[in-house]
Amino acid sequence: MLRGVGRWQLRNSVKWMVTSSSTLAASSSSLAPSASRLASERGAKTNPLASRERSYPVRALRPTRAATPSLVDGEERRASSSKASSSSSESDANDLPLRFAEAARSTGAFHPGDLVLVCVSGGADSVTLLHLLVQLRDAWNLDVRAVHFNHETRGDESADDAVFVKALCARLDVELHIRVPEKPFAPSNFQANARQWRRDATVELLESLEANVALQGHHADDQTETTLLKLLRGCHISRVAGMRPREGVFGRPLLSFAKRELVAFLESRAETWREDPSNASPKYLRNRVRAELIPLLRELVDEGGVEARIEALTEQSAHLRELLDDVPSAYLALGDGPVTSASPFDRSYLMRGEIDLDAWCRLPTLAREDQLRAYVSDCAGVDMEYHVLRKMCAHLFARANADVNAAAVPEWEWRIRGDWVLCSVGSRAWAAKKPRLDLGANEGKQTSDANDGDGDAEARAVGNEVVIDAGRGVSITHPPGWLVRASWENSASTDSSDEGVRLENLPDVCALRLRFRQPGDAFRSGHSRRVKLKDWMRGNGVPLHARDRTPLVCLGDDILAVYPHLSADASPSEDGSAKDIRNGARLNLVVDCVSVDDAETANEFE
After folding, report:
1. What is the DSSP-derived secondary structure letter of residue 288?
2. Can you spell out the DSSP letters for 363-406?
C-alpha cells in the first residue's frame, strides 16, 4: 500500500517541478526579479566577456529570518500541493533538517564553522541542499556561499535557471557566483568535458574564497545509478563502491537521502525548483538506467528493495578494497630498481615505473588483476573491462612463469588500446606508446647542464631529436623525452661526482649520439678486443629486461660507453698513450631518465 501511495505522489509531484520565470515573478516578488530586471540582465549577456565570471554578494540585502520557513512553527508552512500525502511523508519532511545535520556530523561531509560552497543548479536536490544549509547556518556557524554553472546550451532555459538561482540566493542571503565556459564544449563526450570543467572551476573558486569544502547535491538515487553504471561497464568487483560523503574538497551530505524525500521537503514548504529536460533524454545511458532499469529492478526485487541490495554490494566491495590495498605492491617507481655490484645495470630509467614480475607472480590472482589494472590506468589512462583484464593477466602470468631462466625469449607485447602497449622482457613489465605520436611536441623543451667555462650550453631541437652544444667542439644528440646533463671537469680532480660516465681523449670536433642498442653493435672495453654487445651484456650480468633500455654513448659507429659505468678509450694515440687535446679536461655525461616509448627492439638479439 505504501509503495503505491509513493508512486502516486511522485507522479503528481511532477506538476510542481517546472515553474517558468513569469509564474515565479507573479507568485512572489521576493522569489524572482521583476520583468524589467530580467530584460536588463539578458541584455547584459550580449557582452561575452562580462558573462564569463559573475559574483553576486548580497550581504547588504539581508532579509528577515521570517523569509525562511521555520522548523517549528507549523503555521508558516504551507501545505503540499499533493493532498494525498501521507502523515509519515510529512513527518519525514519535517525531520529532514535534523537527520541532515546528523548525517553531516557522522560522515564528515562538512563541519561546524566551515565556509561551504554549494553547487546549485536549480534542481530539486541542490535547492534542497541550499535550504538545509541555510537552516543550519546559525546553529553550526556556517558561512554559506553558492556557485551556479551556466553551460548556455539550452538558450532561454539556461538563462532562466541562472535567474532562478540568483533570486533564490538573494532571498536566502547567500552570496552567489556564476560561471560560464569560455567556449562551447564539443558535442562528442560533452558530459565528461562539462563535468571536468565544473570540477576545475569549483576548485579554483574554493581556493580564491579560501573555502573549506564544495558541497554537491548527489543523493541516494544517484548512488544507485552510479553503482549500476559501473557494473554495466565491467567495473572490477573491488571498485563497485560509489560516491563517498567526502572526497578531498568535495562533500556530498545527501547521499543517505532518497530523491522523494528531497521533493517532499520542498513541497511541504511550497518551494519551487527547475527541471533540466536533458535529464530525461534517452540518449544518455544514465537517464535510461534511471527511467527504465531501476523501475524494473524495483518491481523484481521485493524484500529489502533494490537499493538495500546495492548498498550491501558496495559495502562488501569497500571491504575487499581495504584488503587489496594492504597487499604488498609489485610496482617499481622511477629509480626504485635495485643497483648491486653483481648487477650494476639493473636500472629501468622508466618515467612511468614498471612491474616487478617476480613479486607480481607471487600475489593471489585477485591482487595480480587489481595491481595490473591500477598500473595500466595510471600510466595509460585506460580503464580496462574485466574480461580484457583477466585475459591479459592470464597471458602475462603464464609467460612470466615459463620464462624461468630468461633464455632466448623475445619481448612480449599486449596491445592495450590505441598506441598503448604492455611490454614484458625478463622480470619486468611496463607500459609504452608504440608508435610514438607527435614527436615534435617536445621540441625546444629539453634541458641540459653543460658548461665549458664560458656559460651554460644550449639545447635545440633538430628534426625529431635534441642537440646539446656541450662546448669545446663537442655536441650531444639524443631522442626527445630524455633528460641529459653534460659538464666538463679536470681529470686530476678528486672531488668529482660518481654520477654518469666520463669521456676522455675525444677528437677536436666530434658529435656524440645517445641511443639504444641496434643489431650488429659491438663494444670494446678499454684496450680489449671488440665483442658483440649482446655477448658483452650477457657476460656482465645486464638483466634481460634492461638490455633494450640501456643508453649507449656513440661516436659514429663506435660505442664509447655503455651507460652508466663502463667506457672505452675514444681516441688513443698510435703508441697506445692517451692524447690530451683539452688540457686534462674530460666530459662528464649524466642521463637522468630516458623514454622507452620509441625504443626499437630486435628480438633476434637474445
Report:
1. H
2. S-HHHHHHHHHHHHHHHH-----HHHHHHHHHHHHHHHHH-SS-
- Of 133, 156, 135, nearest to 144 by C-alpha is 133
Q: Which three cell numbers stand for residue 112?
A: 561546524
Instruction: State phi, psi for 598 to the nearest 5 degrees.
Output: -115, 25
Q: C-alpha cell of 474? A: 663537442
The closest of 402, 405, 432, 428 to 599, measured between CA atoms, is: 432
CA 588, CA 485: separation in Å to the nearest integer? 8
Distance, in Å, from the CA atom of 411 to the CA atom of 29, rounded to the nearest integer, reads 74
Per residue in 473-525, pLDDT tens?
Answer: 888 998 887 778 888 887 665 555 567 788 887 887 889 999 988 888 988 77
| Cell matching residue 94 | 519535517
Bridge pairing between strands 246-247 and 585-593: unpaired
Query: Does the bond joining 33 to the residue before it have cis omega, within 30 degrees of 0?
Result: no
Beta strand 175-179 with 143-149: parallel, antiparallel or unpaired? parallel
Give 199's contacts (C-beta < 8 A, 6+ positions apart): 250
Cβ neighbourhood burial of 51 (10 Å; 0-12, 13-18, 19+)? middle
pTM comes to 0.57
Strand order in the sheet with 115-119: 53-56, 175-179, 143-149, 115-119, 213-215, 250-251, 246-247
C-alpha span between 343 and 587 (Å, rounded)? 25
- Whole-angstrom Cα distance, residue 545 to residue 64? 73
H helices of 172-304, in order, are 190-209, 220-232, 259-268, 285-288, 294-300
Q: Which cell numbers hold the place of 475? A: 655536441
